[in-house]
Design goal:
Order of helices and strands: HHHHHHHH
Distance between the termini: 17 Å
Number of helices: 8
Largest sheet: none
Organism: Flavobacterium chungnamense
Pfam family, one: TM2
Number of strands: 0
Structural class: mainly alpha
InterPro entries: TM2 (IPR007829), TM2D1-3-like (IPR050932)
Main location: membrane
Shape: elongated
Radius of gyration: 16 Å
Helix content: over 70%
Membrane topology: Multi-pass membrane protein
Length: 112
């Protein structure tokens, strides 16, 4: 694929991935066939900033985990009221990284 297309993708979507994943994403896009470019552009990534806001407002109900696709953890947080609040507070620090990891999974799964 053209490096200019890849660079534009990286500039507009870098906030959705962890810093250590960016080079792997770039390398994968450079080796990608041009026929898959349309599919890559239509991928919908979860915004880590939105995840932290939802976690602050509804973290005890597990809404943040449901939002990023962690259904099991969302149910656990819902049934325990966020681990009596402790789990909800811990997630304030972890949810952005978890969202970026889920985005990387979406990216990897879409290419196979």
């Amino acid at each position: 694929m053209e490096s200019s297309k890849v660079d534009m993708f990286m500039m507009s979507n870098s906030k959705f991935f962890e810093a250590h994943h960016l080079m792997a994403v770039r390398e994968k896009l450079l080796t990608l066939d041009d026929s898959k470019w349309g599919m890559v552009q239509t991928l919908q990534f979860k915004d880590p900033t939105t995840s932290i806001i939802v976690s602050l407002l509804g973290g005890q109900l597990g809404i943040d985990r449901f939002m990023i696709g962690d259904t099991g953890m969302g149910i656990g947080k819902l049934l325990t009221c966020g681990g009596l609040g402790i789990w909800a507070i811990i997630d304030w620090f972890l949810i952005m990284g978890a969202t970026r990891e889920k985005n990387m999974e979406i990216f990897q799964n879409s290419l196979y």
